[in-house]
Amino acid sequence: MAEAGQHDERFERYDGGSPEAERLVFERLARVLMEVQVRNRRAGGGGIVRAFHAKAPVAVENARLRFHDDLPAALRVGFAQPGADYPAVVRLSNASGIRQGDGSPDLRGVAVRVQVSEGVSHDLLATSFPVSHARDAREFVAFAKAMAGARSPVQKAFALFVKLPLSVGLRTADRMRRNVQAATRHTVDSLANETYWSRGAMLWGEAGPVRYLLRPAPGTPSAPAPDRRDPDFLHREFARRLGQADVAFDLCVQRYVDERRTPVEDASVEWKDAVAPAVPIARLTIPAQELDSAEARATARRIEDLTFNPWYTTDEFRPLGNINRARKAGYQASGAHRLGRRFVSEEPLRNRVLGRPVGAAFELLNRVVPWHRLPLSLSLLNLVFLRKVLRRLNLIDSELREAPPKAQPAPEPIPERLRTERSYDGTYNDLSEPRMGSVGATFGRNLKPDYRPDLFDTPNPVTVSRELLYRESFVPATSLNVLAAAWIQFQVHDWVNHRRYKPGERSVEVPLPPGHAGGWQNTPGGPAEHVMRFAENEAVEQPGQPPLLFANSASHWWDGSEVYGADEQTARFLREPNGGAKLRLEEGHLPLTGNGVPLTGFNESWWMGLSSLHTLFAREHNAVCDALRAEYPTMSEEKIYHTARLVVSALIAKIHTVEWTPAILATEAIDVALHTNWEGPPKNWLNQLGLWLFEAHSLTGIPKTLPDHHAAPYSLTEDFTTVYRLHPLIPDDYELRDHRFGHRLETVGFMDIQGGAAESQIRKTGLANALYSFGIAHPGAITLHNFPRALQRFERDGEIIDLSVVDLVRTRRRGVPRYNDFLAGLHKPRIRSFEDLTRNAETLARLKDVYRDVDEIDTVVGLFAENPPEGFGFSDTAFRIFILMASRRLQSDRFLTVDYRPEVYTPLGIDWVEKSGMNSVLLRHCPDLAPLLPRDASAFAPWRTVRPTANGDGSGSQ
C-alpha cells in the first residue's frame, strides 16, 4: 500500500498519461462548468448558483457524526475511531443546477462537513443513485454542458438525444441517458428516506480504497404521499419530521476488492453489495429542531455560502479516481464563480463563428501588408485579432502547480477588508486564488523558454555591447521628453523585480574578450580582472530542471508598490506617525535614509527623474487623503489610506494606458486602441459594428468588464521584462533650467543626479524646475548604438556593472529565445539574412562581424535594430508583447474591472480617476507649470520652453 496521500498505480491512471497533462484537462473542464452556471442562470433566473445541487431543501449546522464503538479495527484510521463524536454541517439538495420545484424528476444529494478540530475537517458528498452516469470527468462535463439551461421536457429531450450524442458519441450517450433515466424515474417522498452513494472512491488510510454511502437509520418512518404541486414539499416534509424527532443516517463503507468488480477510475460501475458489502461504521444524526425559524433560515444562508469539496479532507482520506480528481478544480472554480470570486465571459456565437475566417484572412493579409500600413479601421480590427491569437497561444503559466491534486483544509473565510482594499503584497486580488500575482509568485512566459548554457557567452556579451550597444553619439527621441523615460522606470519598478544574491554569494562571470585592455574593476577600489562579475538571480529550485523559474519580489499587479511598498511593514513605515493616512513627506519631499536615498516603496536604481515622479505621486496620495477626509468626515484613517492607494494606483494605470503609451507609440491606431482599452471605442458606427461582430467584449472599456485571465493564471512574464529593457531612453547629460525665467541653473551628468546625490539635487533645484527641465529635454531613441555610457560603468550594491552586458546576460540565462526564435514565437516571419534586419551599412557590417548567423542575434539587439512602424518609439516585435500584456494588466485585475466602482473607490475616488490625468497631477502640485505643458498632447511630449531674455522675466516663452 502506498503512503497516505501518494499516488498508487494499482488504483489510479492519469488522463493524458501524467498528472500535469491531466491537470490541464481539468482546468479546461472547470471553465466549462462555469459556463454551464451562466447558462443555468439564464434559464433559472436570479444569480449564479451551484453548477449542481443548486436548491437545498434542508441545511443545518448542528448535526453530529458518531463512530460506532465496534468500528472494525481495519477501518480505525485518523478521525475514524471507536466512539469518536464530531459536529457536522449537513446540506440536503436537489441535483439539478437550476432551482426548480421539488416534484421535477431529479436526483438528490447530501453534503456533510465533519469538523474534527480547528483546521481539520472532512467533506463527504453523495447522490441518490449508486453510480455516476459518467465514467470520467470528460463525460461528466459533456453531459452537464449538453443539459445546461434545459428546463422543459422538450429542451431536456433535445439535450439528451441530440446535443449529448454529438459530444460523446451515440453509444456513450445511450449508456449515460439510460443511467440518468433510471435514476430520475425514482420518486422521492422524503429526503430522510433516501440512500446516498459516494459513487466515486476515496482512500481510507491503510484500508485502501472505499466507497461510502449514507442510508436511513433503521426505524426511520416513511413519509405520507406529498402534494407534488408544492414546489417546496421536500423542505416542508423534512421540517415536520424534524419538528417531532431526530433524523438519522448510517454511514457505511464498501471496501475495494479488485479493479474489475470495484474499479476506482470508472465511476459508472456499481460496487455491488454482494461483492463489497456495505459495513455500517458511524451514525449521522440531525437533531430535532425548528427549520423555519429566523435562526434556522440564517443558518441555511450561511451554509449556502460554503463550498463543499471532497478534497477538503486529509491525506489519509483523499478522493480517488478521475472524476474525483477533477472535482477539486471543478468545484473550486464553480464555487468561486457562484460567490463572485471568479468570473467567466462567454464569447458570443457570432464572434466565434465569424472570428475564424476573418482571423485567417488577416493572417494571410499580414504576410503582404503589416497591420500598421492598413487603413485605420482595418488596422484596429487587425490588432483585435492579433491579440486574440496572442492570448490563445502566448500565455504560458510557469507557476509550480499542484498535480496530482492534494487534500487540503476547508478554506478560511476571506478577510473582509481585502474585498475592498488592495493587500500590501498583492495577495487576494484574485479572491479564488489568493496567491496569484502576489509577491513571490513566479514570472510566466509568452514563449517557451530556450535554455542554452552552451551559448551563454556566445557571442561574448561584452563584444556585443561594445560593437552594437555603446552610445557613440546621443540619438534623441524628439517626440518625447525625459519624463517619459523616468515614467517607464517608475512603472517597471512597480511590476517586476528579480531577486539577486548578495554580492559575493553567487555570481555570474563574463570573460572579457581578447584585446580588452585594462581589464574590468568589479568593485569600487578593487583590482582589475579579466572577467565581469555580478550577482546572479535567485531561481526557484526545481529538482532535475534548469534554473528557469524566478519569483517576482514585487507584486505582478498594477498596485503602486513602487510608491507604497510591497509588504505591510514597509507600507506602514512610509505613512505618517500614529497610523495617519498620508505618506511621510519633509517639506514636500521624500524623507531620506542614512545614505541619502529616500524612503519610498522601491528606491533602487535611483536618480532625479525617479525622484520627481515618486515625490509627485506621494503628494498626490496626500491630496486624495485630504479630499476623502473632507468629503467623508467619519471615514477612518486606515480606510482613507487604502482608498487613496486604490485611487492613485488606478490613476497611474490610466495615465500609462491613455497618455504614456500613445506618446511612445504615436499613431492614430494606437491612440484609439488604448483609449478603447480604458473608456471604450469611439462613437463611430463602423468601429462599433466591427467590434460587435468580432470582439463584443471590447464594446466597453476594460474597467466596465469582468476579470478575465484568458489562457493562464495572471502573471507578468520574462518576455515582458525583456521588451521593457528600454535603457537607451536615459540621456547621459542634463541641463537643469528655471521654469520661470528659462535660464540655465546647472549642467550635470547622470552620475551627478543618481543615488544619494539625486535628493540633494532635487531639493536644490526644486520640483517644478526639475519637472520643467525633464519636460523640455529629449530622451534617447530606443535603437542600437545608444545605450547610456553612464550605465555601462555603474555602481550598484557594492558592485560595478555594465548594465548593457547585464541585460544581455540576464536575457540569455533566463531562457528568453534569441531574436529569430522570438519573432517566430510571436507569429512573425523569421529573418533569413542580416539584411532583413537593417539596411544601415555600418550596423550591418558590425552584426556580421559579431554574430556567426542570424539565429544567434540577441533578442535585445534585434529589438533595437528593427525599423519600427512610423511613429513608434520601439519595435513592432516588442509591441506584440505589449498589446498582449498591456490589456492583461488591466483585464486580470479586479480593482480595475469588477471592483472599479464607487462602492469600493467611493464616488469621489472614481470621479478623481476619471477626471484626472498627468497634466492635472502636475498642476495640482506645481501650478506654475500650467503655461508650459503641451496644449494638444500628453505631458510626455516636449513642453513649451521659456526663452531667457535680457531682463530675465521669461517673457519669451514659446
CATH architecture of the domain at 19-338: Beta Barrel
Distance between the termini: 84 Å
- Rg over CA atoms, rounded to whole Å, is 32 Å
Report the biggest beta sheet as strand number plus sense, adding barrel if it closes.
Answer: 10 strands, antiparallel
Q: Helix count, per DSSP?
A: 28
Approximate helicity band: 25-40%
Going by CATH, the homologous superfamily of the domain at 19-338 would be Catalase core domain
CATH class wording of the domain at 19-338: Mainly Beta
Poorly predicted runs are 1-7, 953-958
Structure summary, number of beta strands:
18
- Per the principal axes of the C-alpha atoms, what is the gross shape? elongated
- What is the percentage of strand-forming residues? 5-15%
Mean pLDDT: 94
Helix-and-strand structural type? alpha+beta
InterPro entries: A_dioxygenase, Catalase_sf, Haem_peroxidase_animal, Haem_peroxidase_sf, Haem_peroxidase_sf_animal, Oxylipin_biosynth_metab
Cofactor: Ca(2+)
Keywords: Dioxygenase, Fatty acid biosynthesis, Fatty acid metabolism, Heme, Iron, Lipid biosynthesis, Lipid metabolism, Metal-binding, Oxidoreductase, Oxylipin biosynthesis, Peroxidase, Plant defense
GO molecular function: peroxidase activity
